[in-house]
Every structure is written in structure tokens, then in C-alpha cells.
């Protein structure tokens, strides 16, 4: 008895009403290439001085949405074409959202890297420097000191306020605190600087007062509501069953908060604190008003003016000397340093959140 093996017929995905697996990626790359060719021709014609990368990505993605819809419509039918169109629109929205970030980071790195890599940028200040040379050590130290003190002020106040609103707050006082926290979240940063300046001017009877601790107070005004809001949301996510289990064992409320609620929400709280630091570390207006600016080193938060990185970037750009390019290079290098610090804080927040997040067993 003999058996015959029938080979499966070869089918083409195009004739079977389905596009090839990587057709979407191929259409996207082809759309970008076509758009790049158009922009290249425009550049050669003299209508544009440089090649427009952002325009190429944007218009290429728009062309991809149209092309993938038409191709899918004629091959796969209207239902699958609509599905691919929505997917393409989501992809286009993602690309458009990334374009400003990519452009910002690329511009900052390209313009700031030459001065950033000079050996004196992190080892010298701008004292007695008129043209090229010098560094931003005084600004980096000022930023770290002022932001560090602002964090020491804001985190205990914000965390204790969040605990009160979540665990104890009831009635008018709780509603009033919530209202004022919401209001403080939206106040302009320059108002915080004016508040700190007016406060210390009245306390010390000095209308021209400028010192680093005032800048820390101004930043803490901006930082406290962010800490309160983020910590409050994290505390609300702790299941009530954990609290009730602790109460059933006779554990007092304050110890339940300390040993159960806070450890459970620690990862989210730390992430919120890191985000609040990243939010205030780049503020210029309040620090320019109350901390002032200087070209010299100053480690004393309670005496004389103190330079910070945002103010350093502003003054280097606004007060350019004879060697204009040197001032611009230092401004871009200061901006690059700020971007790297914020990226480091976000990376640190993710690591801490992963390390301290609750380990769920099966």
C-alpha cells in the first residue's frame, strides 16, 4: 500500500488578501526616503540653506499614513485598512511628540559639547574671565546646594501633609489644605521668587538682599505642592485591607502608617520626589530675583550672592562680551549639564522605584 504526500500549495500574501509581515515598516521607510528626496531637491534649488530633518520625519510620517491606508484598502479591504490607518495615526502622533525632544537634545548636545568637554568647565569659575576660558563650577555647586536645601525643606513638609490628608484629614481643614495645595501647584515661578525676596527683605530690613538660602525657600514653595500631590496619590493606592489587618492585630495607627503604609508606597513617593526636584532645578526667575548671580565661588548659603546653572545659562547668553562665541558655548554647556542632571534624576527614580517596589508573591 503506497501513500502519496500532497505538498501544501504556495500562496502569495498579496493574493490572499493580506499584506506581507514587514510591509508597514517598508512603507514607512519608503515614505521617509521620498520626503527626504523632496527636501534634498529643495535644498539644491537654493530655497533652503540646510536639510530639514524634522520636516522630513513629519511629512514622511504623514505620507506613510496615506500610503498604508490606500495599500491596505486595495489589498485587504476597508476594515483592515481602517485598522492600519488608526495604527499609523498613533505612530504618527508618537513621532510628532518625539520630534521636539529629539531636536532639543540634539541641539543642546551639538552646541554644548565643545565647552562641556574642556578641562576647566567643572574645575574653575568665571572670576576674572572676560573672554574664553573659565568654567561653571560655581554654578554647579550653587545648584546642588540650593536644590539640596530646598529638598530638605520640602520633602518632610510635603510628605507629612500628604499623610495628614490621606490618613487623618477630615472636614474643613482638609478641604482648605487641598484647595491651597491646588492653588500653589499653578502659581508662576516668579511669584515664588518675589515672595521669598519680600519675606527676607522685611525680616532683615534689607531691600537689596541676595543669598542662596532665599533661593532654596523660593524653590521649596514650588516643590512642596508637587510632593504633596504625588505622595497623596501614592498613599491612596495602598489597599485598605493592609491597614485593617494591622489594626486587627492591635497595631496603633501611627505605627501602621510607619511600618505598613509608607513602605508599601515608598517607591512611588521617591519617584514623585525625584520628579519634583527635576521640576524646580531648572527654574531661573525666582533664583535670579533672590539668589542673584556672581562670577565667584560661594559655598555659604546665608551670605552673599550665589550662582546657579539656570542663571548661569541666562547671564552667559544675555551678557555676551567681545568673544561672543565663548559665551554662547558656555551657555549651551550649562544647558547640557542641566539636561544631564535631570536625566540622571529620572534614571535614579526608576532604579529606586524598582528596588523598593513591593515584591508580589504567588
Structure in words:
This protein is mainly alpha-helical and 362 residues long. It has two domains: 23-112, no CATH class; 137-356, MetI-like (MetI-like fold). Helix content is 72%, strand content 0%. The chain has helices at residues 23-44, 53-76, 78-116, 137-168, 171-185, 189-204, 212-236, 240-248, 253-280, 285-290, 309-318, 324-356. Helix 4 (137-168) packs antiparallel against helix 9 (253-280). Keywords: Cell membrane, Membrane, Phosphate transport, Transmembrane, Transmembrane helix, Transport.
CATH class term of the largest domain: Mainly Alpha
The overall pLDDT average reads: 85
Low-pLDDT residue intervals, each spanning 5 or more residues? 7-14
Shape: flat
Strand content: under 5%
Overall number of domains: 2
In CATH, the topology of the largest domain is named MetI-like fold
Category by helix and strand content: mainly alpha
**Biggest sheet details:** none
Number of helices: 12
Beta-strand segment tally: 0
Q: What is the CA-atom radius of gyration, in angstroms?
A: 29 Å
Helix content range: over 70%
Distance between the termini: 56 Å
CATH homologous superfamily heading of the largest domain? MetI-like
Amino acid at each position: 500500500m503506497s501513500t502519496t504526500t500532497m505538498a501544501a500549495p504556495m500562496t502569495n500574501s498579496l493574493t490572499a488578501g493580506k499584506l506581507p509581515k514587514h510591509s508597514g515598516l517598508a512603507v514607512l521607510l519608503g515614505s521617509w526616503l521620498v520626503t527626504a528626496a523632496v527636501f534634498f531637491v529643495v535644498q539644491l534649488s537654493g530655497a533652503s540653506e540646510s536639510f530639514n530633518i524634522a520636516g522630513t520625519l513629519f511629512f514622511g510620517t504623514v505620507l506613510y499614513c496615506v500610503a498604508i491606508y490606500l495599500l491596505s484598502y486595495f489589498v485587504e479591504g476597508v476594515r483592515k485598512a481602517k485598522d492600519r490607518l488608526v495604527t499609523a495615526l498613533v505612530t504618527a502622533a508618537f513621532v510628532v511628540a518625539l520630534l521636539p525632544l529629539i531636536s532639543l537634545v540634539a541641539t543642546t548636545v551639538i552646541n554644548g559639547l565643545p565647552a562641556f568637554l574642556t578641562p576647566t568647565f567643572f574645575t574653575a569659575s568665571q572670576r576674572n574671565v572676560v573672554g574664553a576660558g573659565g568654567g561653571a563650577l560655581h554654578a554647579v555647586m550653587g545648584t546642588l546646594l540650593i536644590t539640596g536645601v530646598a529638598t530638605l525643606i520640602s520633602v518632610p513638609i510635603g510628605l507629612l501633609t500628604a499623610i495628614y490628608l490621606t490618613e487623618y484629614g477630615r472636614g474643613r481643614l482638609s478641604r482648605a489644605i487641598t484647595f491651597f495645595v491646588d492653588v500653589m501647584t499653578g502659581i508662576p515661578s516668579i511669584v515664588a521668587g518675589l515672595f521669598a525676596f519680600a519675606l527676607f527683605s522685611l525680616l532683615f530690613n534689607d531691600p537689596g538682599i541676595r543669598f542662596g538660602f532665599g533661593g532654596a525657600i523660593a524653590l521649596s514653595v514650588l516643590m512642596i505642592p508637587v510632593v504633596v500631590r504625588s505622595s497623596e496619590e501614592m498613599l491612596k493606592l495602598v489597599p485598605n485591607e493592609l491597614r485593617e489587618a494591622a489594626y486587627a492585630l492591635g497595631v496603633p495607627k501611627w505605627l501602621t502608617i510607619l511600618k505598613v503604609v509608607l513602605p508599601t508606597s515608598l517607591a512611588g513617593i521617591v519617584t514623585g520626589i525625584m520628579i519634583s526636584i527635576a521640576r524646580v532645578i531648572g527654574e531661573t526667575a525666582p533664583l535670579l530675583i533672590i539668589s542673584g548671580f556672581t562670577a565667584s565661588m560661594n559655598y555659604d548659603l546665608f551670605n552673599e550672592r550665589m550662582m546657579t546653572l539656570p542663571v548661569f545659562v541666562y547671564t552667559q547668553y544675555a551678557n555676551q562680551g567681545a568673544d561672543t562665541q565663548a559665551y554662547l558655548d558656555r551657555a549651551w554647556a550649562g544647558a547640557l549639564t542641566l539636561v544631564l542632571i535631570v536625566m540622571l534624576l529620572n534614571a535614579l527614580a526608576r532604579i529606586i522605584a524598582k528596588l523598593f517596589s513591593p515584591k508580589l508573591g504567588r
